[in-house]
Each structure stands twice: as C-alpha cells, then as structure tokens.
Amino acid sequence: MSKKRSFIQQFWKDRKTVGSVRPSSRFLADKMLQNIDFTNSKIIVELGPGTGVFTHKILEKMAPDAKLLVFELNQNFIRTLRRKIKDKRAILIHDSAEKIQEYLTKYDLNSADVVVSSLPLFNFPQELRESIITASHKTLKKDGKYIQFQYSTQAKKLLESTFDKVTIAFTPLNFPPAFVYTCTKQ
Ligand SMILES: C[S@@+](CC[C@H](N)C(=O)[O-])C[C@H]1O[C@@H](n2cnc3c(N)ncnc32)[C@H](O)[C@@H]1O
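^ thats the input. predicted complex w/ S-adenosylmethionine below
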C-alpha cells in the first residue's frame, strides 16, 4: 500500500493521534532538518515518524556512530517502519513519546543532542502535551535542539515557556502549510 493511502487509513481510524491526512512533504522535511549539526549529533530522538518521511532523511544524514531512537504509537506505522528500516543505528520503539528518558536509560544512552517531533501537540490533553515537552527538554544536552512542526503558531507560548530560545520558520510547500519551531536548551 502507498504511504499516502496508509496515512489516510490511519487518520480515519484515529484522527487525533495521527493528526494529518497525509505525510509531510520533502520541503517540510528539509526545513525540519536544516538546523541540525549531523556531524556532532550522536543521539537523535524522533517522535511520531508516521510513514517515516523524516526518519529516512535523518538516517541518510546521520553519522555512522550515531543512534536514532524513534517513538511511534500507531501499530500499523511501527510495523511498516520495522519492515522497511534495517539500519542498525535506528531503534524503533512502539510506545509513547513522553517515555524518552526511560528508553534512553534502557539502551544505555545519555542525553540527546536533538529531538525531532511531528506530534500533533494540540490534539492531546494538556497534561500529555506538557509532559512530552518537559520530557524532551529534560532529555536534551546543553545547546540541544527540539524541532517541532505544527500547522499553527499555537505552540509558541508553551515552547517559549520551556526553552531558552525559540525561532519559527514557515513553509507553504506542505499540505497543510506548516510552521517549524526550532527550540534550544541553553
Ligand atoms: C502528524 S503525524 C506525522 C507523521 C510524519 N512524521 C510526517 O510528518 O509525515 C503524527 C504522528 O505522531 C504519532 N503519535 C501521536 N501520538 C504519539 C505519541 N504519544 N507517541 C508517539 N507517537 C505518537 C502518530 O501516530 C503519527 O504517526
């Protein structure tokens, strides 16, 4: 089944969790990843990969000795990712994003350099949304980055209250057009 069809199917099953009717565009993927220093990022976390639009690009750019921890809650998406991704640097986790620290410890990894998130934060209950942002902040090293896309600027206040620096970029070349938040922990 094509990625687009699989996405629509999962969206109709669970709209709030999937959060979009189609996978992100390559233009959005490029915007999400453009501020990452891949040479020096040894631990990267991805939250909500869906069909893997960002995951494949991260693996292409990542250093040979880096690790990518991927959290996906949807059973269908994680099954497909496990079938398609055979890269030993990737750890594919079928669990919820707020458990980042638990899994970093499990895999004997320290804090992360970068967290890349596609989660539809404002479809979640406030408590879950805040616990994911807090867990992501906590898990980052000094100067680490949390990169998140959203379809609105609604997340600005929450991210600014957690991170030291937040910049916002926009791409119309996605459906729907998207805002990319790059947040730094200092
Ligand atoms: C908007 S989609 C983005 C998918 C993909 N990254 C893209 O940009 O095309 C959001 C994804 O987050 C996943 N998701 C939602 N809640 C989650 C959670 N608590 N933990 C991990 N993944 C979650 C959904 O299953 C879905 O795959």
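Residues 24-184 form a domain with the Rossmann fold fold (CATH 3.40.50.150).
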